[in-house]
Amino acid sequence: MSRESPHRPAVLFVCLGNICRSPLAKAAFRAEAEKAGLDVEVDSAGTAHWHVGEPPDRRARAEAQRRGVDISGYRARQVTADDFRRFSHIVALDIENHSALRALRPRDATAELSLLLDHVDGRAGQGVADPYFGDDAGFAVTWDEVSAGARGLIRRLAAG
Ligand code: 4NP
To answer: What is the per-residue burial (b if ≥16 Cβ within 10 Å, else e) of 70-92?
Structure first.
């Protein structure tokens, strides 16, 4: 992927379970990149292994569908140290996962690590709330937050 085309951004979104927030971030980022005409590689992963191989949470799938995106084919995976060499940007959904990623980051990492909402004016340092233990309405908030983050990150990438 990024090795074949070194100037094409390759972005990995990372949350805890990889079944709620980061699959939505991936879907929103892909949609926003298409709108902006930006050629990007995008994937998502979790810092925890609990849901590896599972499709996104039913409520995340439903929210994506409401926003016109089908994420039902996605399967959860756990982030690896190699991701820090394969991707140009690794974007944590919250502070806890940002800390976990800093601990995992290998010495020869080439990926730039950031927090998603650092790309949104007025939201620097904040995390995207975990909707997993809440109700369905939380997923609409998640979509709005990851979309705002995606737009901010795309503006940065487009600016070079
Ligand atoms: P995510 O949400 O990190 O946005 O995918 C969660 C999914 C599962 C769990 C926690 C958060 N869990 O405890 O299993």
So the answer is: ebeebebbbbeeebbebbbbbbb
- The residue annotated as part of the active site, out of 15, 59, 61, 83, is 15
pLDDT tens, position by position, 38-89: 999 999 999 999 999 999 999 999 999 999 999 999 999 999 999 999 999 9
For residue 12, give the 3-state DSSP assignment. strand
Q: If you take atom 7 of ligand 1, which residue's CA is the nearest one?
A: 17
User: What is the pTM (predicted TM-score) of this model?
Assistant: 0.96
Cβ(149) to ligand 1 under 6 A?
A: no
Tokens in use for 52?
């590896």
Consecutive H or E run containing 140: helix 137-158
Average pLDDT of span 111-140: 97
Q: For residue 142, what are its two tokens?
A: 């998640």
Q: 61 to each of 75, 97, 123, how far by Cα in Å?
A: 12, 22, 26
- CA 92 to CA 31: how far, in whole Å? 19
User: What whole-number distance in Å separates Cα of residue 111 and Cα of residue 84?
Assistant: 5
